[in-house]
Design brief:
The protein is α/β, with parallel strands linked by helices. The protein has three domains: 55 residues, Transferase, Pyrimidine Nucleoside Phosphorylase, Chain A, domain 3 (Up-down Bundle), CATH 1.20.970; 246 residues, Pyrimidine Nucleoside Phosphorylase, Chain A, domain 2, CATH 3.40.1030.10; 89 residues, Pyrimidine nucleoside phosphorylase-like, C-terminal domain (Aldehyde Oxidoreductase, domain 3). 47% of the residues lie in helices and 15% in strands. The strands form four sheets. The chain has a four-stranded mixed beta sheet with strand order 1-4-5-12, sandwiched between helices. A three-stranded antiparallel beta sheet has the order 6-10-8. α5 crosses α14 and α16 runs antiparallel to α17. The radius of gyration is 22 Å and the shape is globular. The structure holds uracil (URA). Uracil binds next to α9.
Length: 441
């Protein structure tokens, strides 16, 4: 009888949202509890996700959903660490290796960075997959050991643990198979439930828009950013969002070990200009929000200083060592996984590069084995695309536009055929555009 009543309540709650009603806190908490204790069946959870997808959530509902998901598991307490704590999250892009070098750079400036990251999602790569190109690097760690590492060296990048926002794990898996991923309030709650549970004081969000991002245009990125900043600030975490363009890949490499090498180059002061620019823009706001620097200009100078004096590099080595990775492989990147077939892709035309289609490049790298189609599938850390020409560069007839790193000659041949659609060349110089378009705080 009790079971039947509970089920009736579940059905009524789903119907309320289906008909465009506003859910109260109790109804949202029942939904989130249902995702973790099994009191809602998968088909009921999925029906509610679709109702939310179609009808939306207002700001109050979004906040209630985020907090309920955050409290569905353990919430890390980092109060015993006296230094300010700050994290950064990107909504996902192509060639986005920023976290790998940004976290140790910020930590080298005296701020603790407790970063809990994800794996590749859809066409975008994942920080954890890139770090796992380092032999031995462990992304799984009990939260207490993570806290001890943060206390000791001020930085760590690990994966989500089973006890951190478990409702998100369940709901994300259902969204993935029910066409309900691309929904602003659900994305907001999913991302923030994990970030708020990691115990950070401040958070900088890199909300990307463009053909290589989940948000196709500036307006939708702005709405996602606005929601996330409002919910996160209200939860007591000082938060700012940068709206950044994601039309061409970040840097010149897409693929796990290839991107790790690019991050190593950034730490050694020789990273690609666009990658460093985005890194500094995000890092500036992290240091200001954490109260470590008074202005973005001061923060930029500190970040450049820790790269120049080697402190950021040393901090990265500390992190690799602490998480069981081979320091030897990052000191000598030629020892990292290497693809057996490396071929140049050359242009038949020549001219100025006017577009490098990020999504196309990501799909080709994915096809080479750099990404996965299903959670848990193995990836090949060595494959991908490197030496990408950048928008605005002039390439001579027959000049190189990129290099393909493939597992087999057949895979390289296929990638070569596909790459033709990834570049657009024209006769005229291109006016450069800023990567960071707007800041929301
Ligand atoms: N990343 C997440 O963690 N969740 C989403 O819903 C989308 C991106």
């Amino acid at each position: 009888m009790v079971g039947a009543m509970a089920s009736e309540n579940v059905v009524n709650t789903i119907a309320k949202k289906r008909d465009g009603g506003v859910l109260n806190q109790g109804e949202i908490e029942s939904f989130v509890r249902g995702a973790t204790d099994g009191s809602w069946a998968d088909y009921q959870l999925t029906a509610m996700l679709m109702a939310i997808f179609l009808r939306g959530l207002n700001d109050t509902e979004t906040r209630a959903l985020t907090l309920a998901m955050m409290h569905s598991g353990r919430v890390l307490k980092l109060d015993s660490i006296r230094a300010p704590k700050v994290d950064k999250h990107s909504t996902g892009g192509v060639g986005d290796k920023i976290s790998l070098h940004l976290a140790p750079m910020v930590a080298a400036c005296g701020v603790v960075v407790p970063m809990i990251s994800g794996r590749g999602l859809g066409h975008t790569g994942g920080t954890l997959d890139k770090l796992e190109s380092i032999p031995g690097y462990k992304v799984a760690m009990p939260l207490d050991a993570f806290r001890a590492q943060l206390d000791r060296i001020g930085v760590g990048i690990i994966g989500q643990t089973a006890d951190l926002a478990p409702a998100d794990g369940k709901l994300y898996a259902l969204r993935d198979v029910s066409a309900t991923v691309a929904c602003i309030p659900l994305i907001c709650a999913s991302i923030l439930s994990k970030k708020l549970a990691e115990g950070t004081d401040a958070l900088v969000l890199d909300v990307k828009f463009g053909e290589g991002a989940f948000m196709p245009d500036l307006a939708s990125a702005r709405e996602l950013a606005r929601r996330m900043v409002a919910v996160s600030n209200a939860a007591g975490v000082a938060t700012r969002a940068l709206l950044t363009r994601m039309d061409e890949p970040i840097g010149r490499a897409v693929g796990n070990a290839l991107e790790l090498v690019e991050s190593i180059e950034c730490l050694q002061g020789r990273g690609p200009a666009d990658t460093m620019e985005l890194t500094l823009a995000l890092g500036e706001h992290m240091l200001v929000l954490a109260g470590r620097c008074a202005s973005p200009t001061e923060a930029r100078a500190e970040l450049l200083q820790v790269v120049r004096n080697g402190a950021a590099w040393e901090r990265f080595l500390d992190m690799v060592r602490a998480q069981g990775g081979s320091v030897d492989h990052v000191q000598y990147p030629e020892r990292l996984p290497q693809a057996p077939v490396v071929e140049a892709f050359k242009t038949q035309r020549g001219g100025v590069v006017t577009a490098v289609r990020a999504r196309r490049i990501a799909e080709i790298a994915h096809g080479l084995g750099a990404g996965r189609n299903r959670a848990g599938e193995p990836i090949n850390p060595a494959v991908g695309i490197s030496h990408l020409a950048k928008v605005g560069e002039r390439v001579a007839l027959g000049g190189e536009l990129c290099r393909v790193h493939a597992g087999t000659p057949a895979a390289a041949r296929l990638a070569q055929q596909q790459l033709d659609t990834a570049f657009v060349l024209g006769p005229d110089a291109v006016i450069p555009v800023a990567l960071v378009v707007e800041i929301i705080s």
